[in-house]
């Protein structure tokens, strides 16, 4: 297993391969999963499966910034099972960034065991989320308006989830 964190810097990149339902037609040119998996498969000489998991997901039009989203790759049947940061995957962040055209970055990479998979799911469930949005208004915003907004302490936002 290989774990790390990814940052998605584009609003036009899906987390996983995205095709039109019932076809092979792609909705995006690449995905975070593909941009990470391809160089990992090369570096480790993966002959079996390479399964991608992450702690949650984001929509295609949402960037993943900050310290990034935790991810895990399960590598099955590797030729180079003993690769470490010192001996090879130190180049992985550069490869992911260059092959994605700079829209996906990886960091905090390390070899781990199967228990990391359970921790990934557990972490996603307990993680506190913080969102930032830009709002446009037609009228001029006054200092009083800002003060009223800043006075709000508990706000519940209900949104319709996409299917």
From TrEMBL:
GO molecular function: tRNA pseudouridine(55) synthase activity
Pus10-like C-terminal domain residues: 1-160
UniProt-listed Enzyme Commission number(s): 5.4.99.25
Enzyme class, first EC level, given as a word: isomerase
Ribosomal protein keyword on record: no
Key words of the record: Isomerase, tRNA processing
InterPro entries membership: Pus10-like (IPR039894), Pus10-like_C (IPR048741)
Gene Ontology annotations of biological process type: tRNA pseudouridine synthesis
Annotated protein name in UniProt: tRNA pseudouridine(55) synthase
Organism: Oxyrrhis marina (Dinoflagellate)
Lineage: Eukaryota, Sar, Alveolata, Dinophyceae, Oxyrrhinales
């Amino acid at each position: 297993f290989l774990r790390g964190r990814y940052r998605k810097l584009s609003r036009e990149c899906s987390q996983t391969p995205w095709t039109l339902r019932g076809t092979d037609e792609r909705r995006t040119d690449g995905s975070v999963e593909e941009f990470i998996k391809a160089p990992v498969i090369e570096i480790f000489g993966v002959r079996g499966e390479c399964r991608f998991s992450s702690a949650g997901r984001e929509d295609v039009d949402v960037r993943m910034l900050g310290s990034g989203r935790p991810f895990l790759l399960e590598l099955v049947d590797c030729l180079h099972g003993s690769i470490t940061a010192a001996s090879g995957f130190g180049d992985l962040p550069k490869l992911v960034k260059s092959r994605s055209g700079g829209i996906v970055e990886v960091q905090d990479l390390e070899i781990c065991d199967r228990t990391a998979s359970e921790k990934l799911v557990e972490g996603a469930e307990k993680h506190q989320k913080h969102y930032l949005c830009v709002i446009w208004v037609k009228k001029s915003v006054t200092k009083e308006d800002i003060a009223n907004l800043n006075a709000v302490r508990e706000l519940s936002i209900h949104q319709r989830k996409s299917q």
